[in-house]
């Protein structure tokens, strides 16, 4: 299980960017309104059953309780008066969770969104030692969503700790028996609501229960595409990675994909494609590699490219391809995908959306693809002034530096003034990187023991836009160490291999998060991108794994032979299909 894995394998805060792009604020207003109405209708109908389908009796019951709580018969007027930043403190009564739900339910039924008052209501809530029913909890979470609550404040970006603590207390009060009795419909609604709140689940038993549904579905086939999406989204947000879940999801998808192919159906439903994107995000988040699933994802992109009209959302297809690149499955340009990108460009999918263009071009830069017209569209003064987030600046820096190195343009897309304005952490940190890769210092020390002095071994960020350091060693044709040339030490950007027959090796000591979790000898896409750029500078890349045995090699002659042999193995790895 990888519940606590660090999620920065592509160093671009992948998870945070995915959340911002795929959160509920990006739903179309019509879809969101319809979904909210169906959600409320579901809980309305469930409440109505308690009163034997007598709407008047249910309405009178709720109204009587609220009049007693608010001490007024003008409930609607009173709620509207209290629902402002300045007046919400006027609410001073204590209330139970049942009364809280009734307030939220009544207000929503009468088109009142208690976006301000809810914070005050939480402060007045009577603490609970246990939840009498999981239904109460699930209804409460969904009513919060209907009242447009979020974990992060939309304007200040500050977390709503009061809301978080309340939900956590409810969640951890669920007993194992209550969790097992949650219906599939309720579980799906709970996951959807928690994702829209942008709050992870923390109850291990609840997460296990959700995960087991996905594992069992490989054979039982009881989950709809929407249910799967809801489960996958919340498990991803909750940092709950499980290889059995990943295998079940990919096996089930591959089965469906083969059935479609046998029937010669080249299109999938909208929800199936969205689910595919979600499965890809789950695999990417926890670094699970699945060759067959990735192969079918690429086929899906090709089907869409070959279609006479676009069938699916641009951002779904882009995210699927980005997953293939980030995971190291795609390492070179794909014509079908580029055709699809240009179709979306003609449809103005990137118009006034520079962040989306960044999310297309950064992965393409990893595989050495630089569509100049799209780059010109992105790197405008207006866009650069608009794209101020550190995460986005890091991608812009990566694109520009990669383009400069691989394409040798007359002028780089980012000038020196812009580069000087970038936060220093974008260039890499020795302290952080050495802490992440403890084997780096061990290798460095072992090599220093094999050479006369520090002029023969150097550690440096050769390619600053990758933020990972390398150990540099200079060997002649007899595999003997040589002093690193002065000009190389001053500016570790290019080695002139024509000066003699010697070679400059760049040893990349990887950390675990740069490797596939279920295939620890398979690096992620960023390694291939960096190796290609090192080769452009005439360095020979050498992959060093976190648990390698270089430090155990006894003699210095064997050390250097080991490096040359591993360089050859790295070359084979880079040339794999």
Q: What proportion of the residues form beta strands (DSSP E)?
A: 5-15%
Largest sheet: 5 strands, mixed
Main structural class: mainly alpha
Which whole number gives the mean pLDDT? 89
The total count of strands amounts to 7
| Terminal CA distance | 29 Å
Number of helices: 27
Low-confidence stretches: 1-27
Helix content: 55-70%
Spatial shape? elongated
Radius of gyration, taken over Cα atoms and rounded to an integer in Å: 28 Å
Commentary on this structure:
The chain is mostly helical. Among the domains are: 55-173; 430-575. The protein is built from 27 helices and 7 strands. The chain has helices at residues 14-22, 29-50, 55-70, 75-82, 97-109, 117-123, 134-146, 161-173, 176-180, 184-197, 204-220, 225-237, 243-262, 270-286, 291-306, 314-326, 335-346, 354-366, 372-378, 381-386, 390-407, 416-421, 430-436, 439-448, 486-490, 525-536, 556-574; strands at residues 457-460, 470-475, 481-482, 503-509, 515-516, 519-523, 539-544. Strands 1, 2, 3, 4 and 7 form a 5-stranded mixed beta sheet that branches. Strands 5-6 form a two-stranded antiparallel ribbon. A hairpin with a 2-residue loop joins strand 5 (515-516) and strand 6 (519-523). The longest helix is centred in the N-terminal third of the chain and has 22 residues, at 29-50.
């Amino acid at each position: 299980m990888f519940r606590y894995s660090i999620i920065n394998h592509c160093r671009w805060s992948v998870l945070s960017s995915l959340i911002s792009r795929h959160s509920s604020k990006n739903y179309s207003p019509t879809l969101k309104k319809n979904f909210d109405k169906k959600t409320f209708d579901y809980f309305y109908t469930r409440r109505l059953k308690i009163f034997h389908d007598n709407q008047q009796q249910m309405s009178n019951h709720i109204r009587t309780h609220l009049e007693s709580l608010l001490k007024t018969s003008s409930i609607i007027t009173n709620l509207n008066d209290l629902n402002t930043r300045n007046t919400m403190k006027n609410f001073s009564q204590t209330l139970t969770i049942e009364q809280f739900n009734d307030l939220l339910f009544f207000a929503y039924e009468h088109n009142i969104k208690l976006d301000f008052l809810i914070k005050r209501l939480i402060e007045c809530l009577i603490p609970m030692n246990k939840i009498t029913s999981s239904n109460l909890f699930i209804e409460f979470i969904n009513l919060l969503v209907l009242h447009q609550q979020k974990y992060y404040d939309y304007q200040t970006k500050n977390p709503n700790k009061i809301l978080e603590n309340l939900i956590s207390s409810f969640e951890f009060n669920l007993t194992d028996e209550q969790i097992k009795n949650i219906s599939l419909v309720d579980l799906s609604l709970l996951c959807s609501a928690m994702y829209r709140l942008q709050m992870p689940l923390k109850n291990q038993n609840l997460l296990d229960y959700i995960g087991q549904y996905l594992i069992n579905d490989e054979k039982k086939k009881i989950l709809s595409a929407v249910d799967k999406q809801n489960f996958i989204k919340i498990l991803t947000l909750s940092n709950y990675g499980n290889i059995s879940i990943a295998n079940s999801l990919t096996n089930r998808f591959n089965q469906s994909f083969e059935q479609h192919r046998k029937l010669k159906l080249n299109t999938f439903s909208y929800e199936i494609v969205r689910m595919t994107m979600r499965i890809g995000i789950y695999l990417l988040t926890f670094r699970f590699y699945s060759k067959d699933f990735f192969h079918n994802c690429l086929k899906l992109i090709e089907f869409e490219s070959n279609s006479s009209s676009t069938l699916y959302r641009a951002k779904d297809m882009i995210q699927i391809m980005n997953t293939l690149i980030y995971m190291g499955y795609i390492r070179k340009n794909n014509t079908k995908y580029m055709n699809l990108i240009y179709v979306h460009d003609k449809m103005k999918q990137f118009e006034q959306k520079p962040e989306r263009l960044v999310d297309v071009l950064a992965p393409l830069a990893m595989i050495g693809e630089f569509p100049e017209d799209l780059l010109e569209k992105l790197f405008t003064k207006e866009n650069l002034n608009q794209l101020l987030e550190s995460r986005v600046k890091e991608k812009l820096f990566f694109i520009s530096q990669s383009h400069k190195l691989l394409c040798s343009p007359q002028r780089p897309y980012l000038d020196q003034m812009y580069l000087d304005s970038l936060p220093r952490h974008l260039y890499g940190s020795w302290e952080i990187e050495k802490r992440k890769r403890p084997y780096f210092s061990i290798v460095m020390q072992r090599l220093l023991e094999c050479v006369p002095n520090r002029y023969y071994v150097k550690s440096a960020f050769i390619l600053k836009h990758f933020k990972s350091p390398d150990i540099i060693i200079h060997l002649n044709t007899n595999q003997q160490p040589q002093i690193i040339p002065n000009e190389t030490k001053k500016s570790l950007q290019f080695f002139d291999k024509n000066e003699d027959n010697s070679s400059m090796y760049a040893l990349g000591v990887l950390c675990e998060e740069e490797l596939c979790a279920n295939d620890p000898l398979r690096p992620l896409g960023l390694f291939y991108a960096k190796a290609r750029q090192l080769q452009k500078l005439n360095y020979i890349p050498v992959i060093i794994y976190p648990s390698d045995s270089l430090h155990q090699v006894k003699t210095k002659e064997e050390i250097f032979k080991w490096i040359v042999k591993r360089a050859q193995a790295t070359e084979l790895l880079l040339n794999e299909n």
